[in-house]
Specification:
Blueprint lengths: L1 E10 L4 E2 L2 E5 L2 E6 L10 E10 L3 E6 L1 E2 L2 E2 L7 H10 L3 E8 L4 H14 L7 E2 L2 E4 L19 H11 L3 E6 L6 H10 L3 E4 L9 H6 L2 E4 L21 H7 L4 E2 L10 H17 L4
Helix pairs in contact: 2-3, 3-4
Length: 277
């Protein structure tokens, strides 16, 4: 069905627009001026001065409400999908942390199966935060393992095609082969819990890293130099990679508010300087 939403303000990547929004089935078909004629086959919808914005997509969610996804409680993903939709989330990746190696594949399998049960926000697949880390952070260091082709194959088999993202430390031996195999299967690779050297980041990105898990958390800085020159840190190097999506725990606790402001300013400036497609 084709619908024309009018009397709304549409939030876009660069500005708010007082335009009508065209929706064709489950797709955004375009924006048109409020008085623009487009034909008679569009059902009018009065937005009653609502603000319309794209649904949020949560790429790393260990739980919501009373459910922690590591527990794979039956119905957890389905129940959370309904609550998330009411908060403006339209898609999410239920996620696991570093688990004991003997338990990981079973948890991945059960969680992946639950994704089919989501009736509100779409459960787009599973995100495995770990188990190939350089720094444990809040995760159990006993559950950290080395990346390998065999591990990648086991994770893919356990999720039956629903593994959509993996967070890892690319400096670990075996990471390049691990990343290549997952990328071939369509898995997004996120850098996190890493001790990578800033100078190595361009090489790791060339392997296929798409995003960063929680910028500034579990990312050690470099000691100051002796010549008064700022020493480039891991987070500096990640900021310099313009095509990386940067995740952030934006609660004012995990990351200093000044760093949140800095990151937002840098990315806003980068977006505004890019030519529109």
């Amino acid at each position: 069905m084709k619908k024309r939403w009018s009397n709304v303000t549409v939030v876009g990547p660069e500005a708010h627009s007082a335009s009508d929004l065209l929706i064709d089935g489950d797709r955004f078909a375009g924006l048109v001026a409020r008085d623009a004629p487009i034909g008679d086959n569009w059902e009018p919808v009065d937005g009653k001065r609502a603000v319309l914005y794209p649904g949020m997509i949560d790429l790393l969610q260990h739980g919501f409400g009373q459910h922690l996804y590591n527990d794979t409680t039956p119905g957890a993903v389905a129940e959370n999908s309904l609550m998330l939709a009411r908060h403006g989330v339209t898609g999410f990746l239920p996620s696991i942390s570093c688990l004991p190696p003997s338990q990981m594949e079973g948890v991945l399998s059960r969680l992946a199966a639950q994704c089919e049960e989501a009736k509100g926000a779409k459960a787009l697949g599973v995100h495995s935060e770990g188990p190939c880390f350089g720094s444990p952070g809040a995760h159990n260091p006993e559950n950290i393992v080395a990346p390998s082709l065999a591990l990648a194959e086991r994770m893919l088999a356990a999720t039956d095609g629903r593994l959509k993202a993996v967070t890892l430390a690319p400096e670990r031996p075996g990471a390049e082969e691990f990343i290549a195999h997952l990328k071939q299967a369509g898995v997004s690779i996120h850098l996190g819990h890493s001790r990578a050297k800033a100078s190595d980041i361009p090489r790791y990105v060339s392997w296929g890293i798409d995003a960063v898990t929680h910028m500034y958390n579990v990312m050690p800085t470099e000691p100051p130099g002796t010549m008064g020159v700022h020493v480039v840190s891991l987070t500096d190097a990640l900021l310099a990679e313009k095509d990386l999506a940067l995740g952030l725990i934006c609660d004012g606790i995990h990351v200093d508010p000044q760093l949140i402001k800095l990151l937002g300013s840098c990315r806003a400036s980068a977006c505004s300087s890019r030519p529109m497609p």
